[in-house]
Amino acid sequence: MTDADVPADTAAAPDPAPVSITEAGPACDWPLRLERALAAWLAEEIHNSPVARVTDAYNHLVTTLDGLKARILQEI
Description:
Order of helices and strands: HHH
Largest sheet: none
Radius of gyration: 24 Å
Number of strands: 0
Mean pLDDT: 77
Distance between the termini: 53 Å
Helix content: 55-70%
Number of helices: 3
Shape: elongated
Structural class: mainly alpha
């Protein structure tokens, strides 16, 4: 049996060509993605929590998160 005898829907698809890093598009914007992820976490987990009701505690958390973002961005 030749390839011409095999129905098109059962024929093996060719392997996709590998994509090089330069063809993949622009580099990921890590600072923006990290900022969005932490803002979403803060809204989901801390909003209307006991921490959010105590100004000093909330301000400390936000300041600490800024330091955490800086450390993570240094590592990636």
